[in-house]
Every structure is written in structure tokens, then in C-alpha cells.
Write a structure and sequence with these properties.
Strand content: under 5%
Mean pLDDT: 78
Oligomer: single chain
Distance between the termini: 65 Å
Shape: globular
Radius of gyration: 23 Å
Order of helices and strands: HHHHHHHHHHHHHHHHHEHHHEHEE
Low-confidence stretches: 233-243
Number of helices: 21
Number of strands: 4
């Protein structure tokens, strides 16, 4: 049965369903404010790393900066760029599943990934998880399609470029899948010389791609290493190793607790699926899934700070395992797959009915309050970057990234904030209350520091404070 027309139709329906979410003037994720403000700073002529503090690799922000060709629609255009990678990730998932299983299993795997609440949610967010996942999955697709043949060396080169790009976009998504691809090559047959050649091309191509991205993004010329050290590197070094492992393991196991639908794609579901397949004698199917999931889990244990978005890397693995189980139901029980997929779809739809950010009255009031105290063209400081950017105001470029990582490492502190406020040129301060926690402020709070220079409150609710 030719599944291509159904896949194209499904991708079109998926994108059509996602479009309304892309055009909501509301935040889905705190990182969206950081990226959106960074895009506005670039449009204002500031240089990444030279003027703008940006503690990440440059490829994602350079890619989404193409949205500047749609003035005043930059947030929506950037989200659409991210959305374009979602069908590519689904297509790569289908190709990988089809490589090891039947058309029916591959189709069910794609549907399960598409209705996963986390994948659905990240597909319209201005974050790098979906582009990185799509790039890494396509790299694996190219690797497993007979890479040891001379005619397929081009596949390996393309895979190396994609892995390099995926590492730039979000390293945590790419590295476990890269190692899985390398292990596949090592056991794929062929002579040892051929295998070494393929691995060498993969390694060199990934490194060269990363270096080109860093050069193009201005990372080398403008002190990107120092800013990376001021963010993620220092956060890693400043946290006890055992603490990272314990908290990350807890985050991985409990990362799905807020979502009923996500439990269907959790590690217990993966474990039960693998046990079922193993007992049926499906070791050939089980082994690649065990290797991939073990590598992902190992990276999560040693990563600095795991959040729910990072767990998206497990979704294709769990979906494939579950699709294998559903495809192997005894005769007369084929309805189980239909019922299960329908249940996943209904749960996802129900969860988004009450978790979907709507144009909330308090957000509208906060924007009105900020406009009233910060005239057009003025500078606003604070960690509520989505609010600041939504009213077309800029922050000081060195505080474009106001993330928790900077607070943990001390590259942002009460003293540094107070020093910047003393320099003047700031009309207001917009803070998220939750973000006031964790800043190094011995003997005082960040609110005390802000009130020293901006004693009046323009807005105060359960989430946001606006000082002027």
C-alpha cells in the first residue's frame, strides 16, 4: 500500500491545525521571550555576542532571524520557521520506522509522534528542539541507508552536515542520536576500513559544519566563548555532579506529571513495550531501541538542567516501540490500535483546550501598563522579556538573556543589576515574580534593589511586576 499520499495529506492537516497557535500573541515558553528580544536587538543593528549577551550557539537565532523580512510579524514568522521542521521530523520518523518495520507500523509511529502533546506543543514554539530533532533524525536516516556503499558516501557527508547543524541547534537532541548512528555503522557489515572511513567523514563533517556555523554566526569574532562560559559552562561547573544526576533523574521520571497525554509517551510506557516485544522474541527490534533510549538517558543524567522540553528526544523512540506493540496484536484485536490512537488524540485535544494560552485579560492590562510608563523608543529592563518585546520595547543588550542559568552562575546578580540601573537610560523594569528567586542578593532581595531606583508600581498581579 502506497502511504505517500496519506502522509502528504496528514502533514498538510497537521500544519493547518498548528497555524492558529503560531499567530497567538502570547507566550508558550519562557525561552520565547529571550529569542524574540534577541531578534529585535538584531533588527536594531546590534551585534550578536559583541553587544547582545547570548549564551548559546548562533545557528538557531541566525536561522529564525530570517523573520526580519516580515516586519512586525517577526514572532509569528519565526514560529512558522520552526513549524516547517515538524513535518520534516515526522517524515524522518516514518523513514526510520519503515527501515525496521512494515508500512503499517511506520504509519502508526508517525501518528503517535504527531499526537504527542510535547511534540505538538513544541512545533509552534520559538525554541530549538524541533529543528534540532528533525536534523538529527534525518542524519540517522541517511546513515542507516547502506552507508558503506561507495555510492552512498554522499549520504554520510550529508548526515555529517545535518548532525553538525543539529548540535548547533540543540546539542542534547543530536548527540545521543549521533552515537546511535555511529554504533549502527560499526555493526552494519563491511570491512573495518570502510567503517573507519565513514566514521571519519561523519566526525570531520560535523566539526567543519560547527566551525562554519560559529564563524557565520559571529561567535568567534565577538567573544561567544566567554558568553557561553558565562552561561551553560559555568552552570555545569558550579553544580555538584551528584546533584545534577539526582535532580535530572527526577526530572526525567517526573517530567510528564503535568500531562496525562504525555504519560502515554513516557519511560514506563517504553519499558513495558520493550518487555512485551522481548517476550515475543523481537530482539532485532528491541536492541536499537534499548541503545538509543539508554544513550538519551545517559545524556540526561549528566546534563546541567533538564526540563520537560528536552524529553522530546524520547518521543520517536517511545512511539516506535508502541507502534510495534500495536501492530502485533492477535487477529481480532486490530481495533486496539485504532482505539489507542484515538484516545491519544482526544487526550491531546482536551489538554490543549485548557492549557492553550489565550489572550488573557491580565496580559492585556500588563501591556497597557508598560506602554503607559515606558514611551515608544525607551529602554525597559527585566526578565519578562516576552512582555517587553510585545510592546515594541528593547532591553539593554547585555541583559537580553535574563535566564536562570545566568543567575545560577552569578553572571547576573543584584549588584550587576543595580550597577546597570545607576547608569540611567531605563524607563521601567518588568519582572516575572518567579524569576526574582535565585538571584545572588546577600542581605536583600532583587525587589529591594529595583525599588531603590523605581519606587512606584505600575502593575502588580500574580505573575508580573512593573516598576517605574
Amino acid at each position: 500500500m502506497n502511504m505517500r499520499p496519506y502522509l502528504i495529506l496528514g502533514a498538510a492537516v497537521y500544519v493547518a491545525v498548528q497555524l492558529p497557535f503560531c499567530f497567538l500573541l502570547d507566550y508558550f515558553n519562557g525561552s520565547e521571550g529571550v529569542y524574540w528580544q534577541t531578534l529585535r536587538q538584531l533588527q536594531a543593528g546590534r551585534e550578536l555576542y559583541a553587544d547582545i549577551f547570548y549564551s548559546q550557539w548562533p545557528l538557531f537565532i541566525r536561522l529564525t532571524s530570517l523573520s526580519q523580512f516580515a516586519p512586525f510579524l517577526d514572532l509569528y514568522a519565526a514560529r512558522l520557521i520552526v513549524l516547517a521542521f515538524a513535518p520534516l521530523a515526522l517524515w524522518a520518523t516514518y523513514r526510520l520506522a519503515r527501515r525496521w518495520a512494515s508500512e503499517k507500523t511506520a504509519a502508526m509511529c508517525v501518528v503517535l509522534v504527531a499526537v504527542d502533546p510535547l511534540f505538538f506543543n513544541l512545533s509552534h514554539q520559538l525554541t530549538g528542539e524541533i529543528p534540532s530533532l528533525a536534523s538529527a533524525l534525518w542524519a540517522v536516516v541517511l546513515l542507516v541507508e547502506k552507508p558503506l556503499r561507495r555510492s552512498q558516501l554522499l549520504n554520510v557527508t550529508a548526515a555529517a552536515v545535518l548532525f553538525g547543524a543539529a548540535i548547533q541547534l540543540k546539542a542534547l537532541m543530536a548527540l545521543p542520536l549521533l552515537i546511535t548512528g555511529v554504533l549502527w555503522i560499526m555493526f552494519a557489515g563491511g570491512t573495518s576500513r570502510e567503517r573507519v572511513k565513514v566514521v571519519a567523514v561523519l566526525f570531520v563533517g560535523s566539526v567543519v559544519t560547527n566551525m562554519l556555523c560559529l564563524y557565520w554566526g559571529g561567535w568567534m569574532a565577538h567573544g561567544g566563548l566567554a558568553q557561553l562560559q558565562g552561561g551553560l559552562v559555568r552552570q555545569f561547573l558550579s553544580s555538584p555532579f551528584s546533584f545534577n544526576m539526582a535532580t535530572n533523574l527526577h526530572a526525567v521520571l517526573d517530567g510528564y506529571d503535568y500531562s496525562v497525554g504525555m504519560w502515554m509517551f513516557s519511560l514506563p510506557a517504553l519499558l513495558l513495550s520493550l518487555i512485551y516485544l522481548y517476550r515475543r522474541g523481537e530482539q532485532r527490534m528491541v536492541e536499537p531501541l534499548i541503545v538509543a533510549s539508554a544513550l538519551c538517558l545517559a545524556f540526561f543524567l549528566f546534563y546541567v538542567r533538564v526540563n520537560t522540553d528536552h524529553l522530546i528526544v524520547f518521543t520517536p523512540i517511545v512511539a516506535f516501540a508502541m507502534a510495534l506493540v500495536l501492530a502485533r496484536q492477535p487477529p481480532g484485536y486490530s481495533f486496539v490500535a485504532t482505539v489507542f490512537i484515538a484516545a491519544c488524540l482526544l487526550v491531546t485535544a482536551w489538554e490543549f483546550n485548557w492549557t492553550l494560552p489565550q489572550p488573557r485579560k491580565r496580559e492585556v492590562r500588563a501591556r497597557q501598563a508598560l506602554r503607559s510608563v515606558a514611551p515608544q523608543g525607551s529602554v525597559v529592563m527585566g526578565n519578562n522579556l516576552f512582555l517587553i518585546t510585545s510592546v515594541d520595547r528593547l532591553t539593554p543588550p547585555e541583559y537580553t538573556d535574563f535566564s536562570a542559568a545566568r543567575a545560577v552562575t552569578g553572571s547576573v546578580s543584584c549588584d550587576s543589576i543595580e550597577e546597570r540601573l545607576k547608569q540611567g537610560g531605563i524607563s521601567a523594569v518588568a519582572m516575572v515574580k518567579k524569576g526574582l528567586e535565585g538571584l545572588p542578593c546577600p542581605g536583600r532581595t532583587i525587589e529591594d534593589v529595583i525599588r531603590t531606583h523605581f519606587p512606584r508600581l505600575a502593575y502588580d498581579d500574580a505573575r508580573t511586576l512593573i516598576f517605574f
